[in-house]
Amino acid sequence: MNKLQNILRGNIRQYGMVIALAALLVFFQLRTDGIMLKPINVSNLVVQNAQILILAIGMVMVIVARHIDLSVGSVAAFVGAVAAILMTKHDVPWFLAVVICLVLAAAIGAWHGFWVAYVGIPAFIVTLASMLLFRGLTLVVLKGATVGSLPQGFKDIGSGFLPEIGPDTGYHNVTLILGAVAALALVVMDVRKRRATQKYGFDVLPLPLFLLKNALIAGVIIYFSYLLASARGLPIVGVILFALIIIYSFVMNRTVFGRQVYAVGGNVDAATMSGVNTRRVDFLVMMNMGLLAGLAGLVTTARLTAANPKAGTNFELDAIAAAFIGGAAVTGGVGTVIGAIVGGLVMGVLNNGMSLMGVSIDWQQAIKGLVLLAAVAFDVWNKRRTASGGGAGAEKADATAPPPPELIEEIEELEAADSGPPGPAPAR
Amino acid sequence: MTGPILEMRSITKRFPGVLALSDVNLTVRRGDIHAICGENGAGKSTLMKVLSGVYPHGSYDGEVWFDGSVVEFGNLRQSEASGIVIIHQELALIPELSIAENIFLGNETAKRGVINWDAAHHRAIELMARVGLAENPLTKVKDLGIGKQQLVEIAKALGKDVRLLILDEPTAALNDDDSAHLLDLLRGLKGKGITSIMISHKLNEIEQVADAITILRDGRTIETLDVAVGAVDQDRIIRGMVGRDLEHRFPDHTPEIGDVLLEVSNWSVSHPTDHSRDVIRSVDLTVRHGEIVGIAGLMGAGRTELARSIFGRSYGGRFEGELRLDGKQVELRSVHAAIGAGIAYLSEDRKGLGLNLLDDIKTSITSAGLGKLRRGLTVDEDQEVVVAERFRKDLNIKAPSTSVGVGKLSGGNQQKVVLSKWMFTDPQVLILDEPTRGIDVGAKYEIYGIIQGLAKQGKGVLVISSELPELIGLCDRIYTLAEGQITQELARGEFTQERLMKHMTADVRQA
Predict the structure, then answer these.
(1) Does B377 sit within 8 Å of A272, measured CB to CB?
(2) CATH number of the CATH domain containing B490
(3) pLDDT band for position B158 (50/70/90)?
(4) Start and end of every ABC transporter domain (chain B) (predicted)?
(5) In chain B, fewer beta carbons within 10 Å around the N or the C end?
(6) Angle at A425 between CA A424 and CA A427, to 5 degrees
(7) CATH number at residue A269
(8) Which of B431, B163, B179, B154 is nearest to B287 (CA)?
(9) How many CA atoms lie within 13 A of A177 on its CB side?
(10) Do B104 and B237 fall within a single domain?
(11) Could you count the other beta carbons within 10 Å of the beta carbon of residue A117?
């Protein structure tokens, strides 16, 4: 009984923002008479928010490493502008232009990394300077005008869809197949992980809950692919985005480098004294943010079919808000890629839903501001209330706050007994 | 007015699980310079915090009588209003403000909130003259040497009409001239009727200026020596400071000592920013395979600085001298290189430098040796759990699983996690800086066992500790360190607390 409670508590915590996102979707679905989850609207939701979600991935890594990047909007605009100029004024093939621009973006990120990691200037200052610098350079490059008439291949990055194959079923076949494969892969991976964990004799989620969890996840993925397949199929930016989520989740969770980012953010001095090259970590994190900002800039330019001097305005604020809504901690060391994506989707759904309901843009801004504050306040309050177990994001408040009475009792009991049997492993 | 200016009667102060002060009595005569001596952790600072209201009335038992009446300070401001000013070892000046601004910080000469700077500067010059500080009051404090900063602190105290001045290790960071000037100043203030309490490890200075000396040990008053009554010399003070039984039990241990493993020769290290100030001076030391070597020194002697400078130059600015491992000269320019060469350093600051409190047990244990778990691109997380579980069992880390956050563990178990972390890097030399600080007795005993087990495997262990009985019980050899220099090397059988303390308080400059 107690065990079940622990698991539920841990999981509600872990999936708190997911539940909030689902609640938002249901709310808007009801208030907009079903427009919210219409295939075409879901498709739009992905395409319109892709650039913020791409930025949120990089931003959460920067925030975990206890920095910030205010320049991403300006860098996105600048890189997009350079791409447009290369393609229209210098007749560079679009794929080559993309490669050049990504290298340029990584170089801009490396520039930030140099000042932050090796000179020791706070990232806030360095990227504030770049925010002004690259907004200015964007105007210089574009000579203050919008540059359009981009090649179709490039525009497809922002607004294209996967090609269709096979018979005409009324649905987008490739998308359906990809959705089914993804759902199957996730379930297979989770089953294998469960077996491995059991092999070491550690506790796992009870079987009914495990099945329920997998059924839910698989169901959501299949439903989502069904929605997309009913419209125009999976957008190309969607493919890019899913690839990035998988790659960066892997990097942050499974690699030595990911561990080092969390270590540097959690306690930079302890990381240094454990032999972590903290400067290198800071440098790479900032460089990566530059790269992703450039990619977001290309995607935006492609979707808008033109480079615009005002493109990317306030992107940095949306990306930062996404990371914090998704559970990142201002003090560093806490945050996940998936969390930032969910945070970004919460913002995107709010935007989209309120637009559908006819809420004016000024009120949308105000409401989004309050949502950010409420999300973080809820998180802080929740951590204070229940301070046990949980994932990486769960332990931030615990470090400073005293542990809850029941946990102290548990630990004291264990310390009294010479060696206790292994208890339940909190969900990570 | 006669009678003592200050009487603290039966002061008892408890922290959760720790009795910091137990029935402490302190009587300070009017116009005296009264020294308080004791080992690290004897309760000197706690007693001064009770006096100055940092620990407010009600949080301790006993009475404080100041100038003939009972006082019940709720905070520092109230004690200052009565004329008790404390100057901490870590100076509380604001570097970016001027001397005058610092002197009047929190005590501004203001009329309706507006500061009259002309009046303030005029008064600052007066106060500075009283402490013999000839500087422009507009000079920023950061541009002053540490000795002059100390004088600014005293001028600030005088500005508050101080009647009882408390100085915590006032000369710890000062050079000879500045120290001498400060001691003269204290004598001068005494002539003007200001009573001082001085906490110091430098027994020769105490001998020079103190009128009375109170010795604390383990949170109790041991004795008060009156200089007027009979001559007090350093040996007499040392006897009072250490006179205690070896109450800790140590596991049986037969050392099997091999060849020289770590050799540090002529090692000098400067302060990280002030390269002209040597913190470690020409240190020579060796650690052999299977040997447990102690470093005994008082706070500020440079113990941690020495250890960290060896550990990949993680402390210091300029380095001289050589390091040899198994006879081969090594250049360890980073922590990474030091770990790679087989050196581990367990920090005295467990929460600041040892652990990421957001981590769980298993990620903490593997954080310094993550390379060993690398499998292709990924960290082998299954293997990680196996490793962590092994340490949890071997070192008896008391937690329900290795997924528990280290922030939730007791000090003893946190320390075992940090020890596991360093053992996982498979080092040859382990430098353990205060390995049992803030740990209960049971866990201490276990950690002694672990340390001896490491020595038995042929590893060299260098232990830094403020607790002399711990060093005496554990070590095969002990170096004493004072003001960044090795003052003596003693082998097992030669060391007693008195001998160690004598060399730890040795005046290096006269030697």
Answers:
(1) no
(2) 3.40.50.300
(3) confident
(4) 6-243, 262-508
(5) N
(6) 125
(7) 1.10.3470
(8) B431
(9) 9
(10) yes
(11) 24
Torsion angle in degrees (nearest 10) through CA of B95, B93, B154, B123: 70
As for how many domains chain B has, the answer is 3
**Contact assessment for residue B284 and residue B481, using Cβ atoms and an 8 Å cutoff:** no
Any A CB within 8 A of B219 CB: no
Q: For A147, how many CA atoms within 13 A lie in the half-sphere containing its CB?
A: 26
CB contact under 8 A, A256 and B370: yes
Q: How do residues B42-94 score in pLDDT, each as one tens digit?
A: 788 889 999 988 899 988 999 999 988 999 999 888 898 899 998 887 778 88
Nearest C-alpha of chain A: how many angstroms from B45? 25
* Residue B330 and residue B365 in one domain: no
Contacts for A369 with CB less than 8 Å, ≥ 6 apart: none
Checking DSSP bridges between strand B33-37 and strand B212-217, what pairing results, if any? parallel
Name the token pair of B369: 């040796």
Higher-scoring residue by pLDDT: A110, B170: A110
Domain count, chain A: 1
Token digits for B370? Answer: 């993550």
- B349: in domain: no
Query: Is A414 part of any domain?
Result: no
Nearest-angstrom CA–CA distance, B307 and B408: 28
Contact B398 A420 (CB under 8 A): yes
Separation CA B154–CA A119 (nearest Å):
37
B3 touches chain A (CB under 8 A): no
pLDDT below 70 — which residues of chain A? 1-14, 201-202, 382-383, 385-428
Q: Is residue A282 part of a domain?
A: yes
Residue A270: inside a domain: yes
Q: Which domain, by its residues, includes A241?
A: 39-160+235-356
Buried b (16+ CB within 10 A) or exposed e, A213-241: ebeeebeebbebbbbbbbbbbbbbbbebb
Does one domain contain both B182 and B270?
no
Query: With left for phi above 0 and alpha for psi between -120 and 50, is residue B193 left, alpha or beta?
Result: left
* B157/B288 same-domain check: no
Instruction: State how far the Cα of A335 lies from the Cα of A324, in Å rounded to an integer.
Output: 8
Q: Do B381 and A254 touch (CB under 8 A)?
A: yes
Per residue in A43-95, pLDDT (tens digit) is 889 899 999 999 999 999 999 999 999 999 999 999 999 999 999 999 999 99
pLDDT of residue A63: 96
Both tokens of B217, joined, read: 């040990």
Residue B97 lies in a domain: yes
Question: What is the C-alpha separation between B154 and B175, in angstroms, rounded?
Answer: 17
Question: Do B451 and B393 fall into the same domain?
Answer: no
Q: Please give the residue of chain B at the shortest CA–CA distance from A393.
A: B358
Residue given tokens 């009046």 in the structure block = B119
Range of the domain at B435: 247-342+427-511
Asked whether residue B196 falls in the same domain as residue B334, the answer is: no
C-alpha span between A209 and B380 (Å, rounded): 27
Of B310, B401, B408, B432, which to mutate for an interface test with A (greatest number of A Cβ within 10 Å)?
A: B408
Check CB contact under 8 Å for B379 and A254.
yes
The Cα–Cα gap between A352 and A359 comes to: 10
A428 touches B438 (CB < 8 A): no
Within a domain: B1: no
